[in-house]
Amino acid sequence: MGSASAAAGASASWTVILTRAAFLALCALAVLPPLAQAKHGGATRHYKFDIKMQNVTRLCQTKSIVTVNGQFPGPRIVAREGDRLLIKVVNHVQYNVTIHWHGVRQLRSGWADGPAYVTQCPIQTGQTYVYNFTVTGQRGTLFWHAHISWLRATVYGPIVILPKKHASYPFPQPFKEVPIVFGEWWKADTETIINQALTTGGAPNLSDAYTMNGFPGPLYNCSAKDTFKLKVKPGKTYLLRLINAALNDELFFSVANHTLSIVEADAVYVKPFKTHTVLITPGQTTNVLLRAKSKAPNATFVMAARPYATGPGAFDNTTVTGFLEYAKPSSPSKPKASKLPILKPTLPKFNDTAFATKFSLKLRSLNTAQFPAKVPRTVDKKFFFTVGLGLNSCPKNQTCQGPNNAMLAASINNVSFVLPTTALLQAHFFKQSKGVYTTDFPANPPFKFNYTGTPLSNIMVTSGTKVAVLPFNTTVELVMQDTSIIGLESHPLHLHGFNFFVVGQGFGNFNPKKDPKNFNLVDPAERNTVSVPSGGWVAIRFLADNPGVWFMHCHLEVHTSWGLKMAWIVMDGKGWKQKLPPPPADLPKC
Ligand code: C2O
């Protein structure tokens, strides 16, 4: 995308609309480097990510942010299914950095997954690491982001996975494809914000704006010139690649007077369905088709996103907007786009859980002969995890800003996860787990209670670096249950290294006798991030066919910071293709 998306050159005139030909040409020129054809038919694509500081102005305030190649949002990675990616990351900033390829399955390439202290030690200032992985069996939209502290606030960008050469989409070929990346913007420095919150035990400051491809839009003060515009031609179909890269907020998205057709989620095709509003949690990606009206209307259409929020805490209750404009043959008699009436969409209320439930139930795997839903029919191991908030005690001689002079925390089965100071994957691979982690992550809550009823009196969490171990090819069923501790809340849980099937969901406490009877084992949604409903539960199944250490956490970054995270260790299988290869020579050291 070159200078078009460079922060310094960003302006309202930036339109990302490219014809398909131009899009591919641009990729070939600016994004796609020379290709080397590999044996398996896929190509090898090289990228270079220079992590550097860049001054960016939003909402009339300039700040220095961490970026990739000075771009905000970061550069687009484009590959075809089956391609190998070699991404050289060079760290020129004062922070430790890692990059995660969110949703990429990383089959036997866990060393390239990216979460700091889980699969790798961070890339330190002045150091370099080459992420080396192949995109297998996935097509659609994913994204990449920094995976250490809160650096992903500004370090993120799209991953576009095109079908194999000569393969087509299972839906009408769009005229153009446009990534729309949602982000969250703070005027203040986000590393300072999270570090302060973690010292005081209180909640971190709320963001000042949401962004659409880096732009907050005209509903914010001093922001009208920073508006994303999508120019369309009458009668054409556009594929919008929606990505929620916001830190802490699920979002509703809608386009005035236009219907969206959902065709893919988390890089898996779904049964197409029409909707006016999309719900997208942090960590989720959704491809939608937007069909432009057959005749250019005399209006400008607002594209808007604002939060779906269920938790007990305050949230950034603002709205990001961009414009959908129809291109017209220039004629002096016709009014200019800026003079046209502006039509706005109606979005669900911020706490519209009924909409959220209906929407998630509509998502179904395409499940055709070509794209089957390989739902595990039998289950080797069952897990039941409570997810939610809690408290840690305040250090002696300190006052804390959480409830009851304690510190806010979050946990899974009451374990608030503590990252080690070396990486889990190295410790596992070299059999040096002693003093790094223990393998006693509880498969069930430490005690039973009415999870969604009146909160307990003791809501203190325990802390530890505990992992759950799975033999190779275990079929896993995991039920995740929200709790009322501190407050009911929807939690978008993300699993690294796998896609899972969302076989069931419901409200209240999960009933192991009754609820499994209603599981969908035919065409459930297959994804990498799913919301545990506020005051409810979700059941997922996956096949542990990828050896390595795999992080699982709430993709609300503040909850991850508070400890709502854990890791799975999937052991090697017997066959040589079932083992994790040794680490690359340039793997960073702690
Ligand atoms: Cu998108 Cu562990 O992250």
TrEMBL record:
Binds 4 Cu cations per monomer. It catalyses: 4 hydroquinone + O2 = 4 benzosemiquinone + 2 H2O. The keyword Ribosomal protein does not apply. Pfam families: Cu-oxidase, Cu-oxidase_2, Cu-oxidase_3. GO terms for biological process: lignin catabolic process. GO terms for molecular function: copper ion binding; hydroquinone:oxygen oxidoreductase activity. Its EC number is 1.10.3.2. Residues 1-38 form the signal peptide. SUPFAM superfamilies: Cupredoxins. It is found in: Secreted, Extracellular space, Apoplast. GO terms for cellular component: apoplast. It is an enzyme of class 1 (oxidoreductase). Lignin degradation and detoxification of lignin-derived products. Belongs to the multicopper oxidase family. This is Laccase. It comes from Rhodamnia argentea. The gene is LOC115749725.
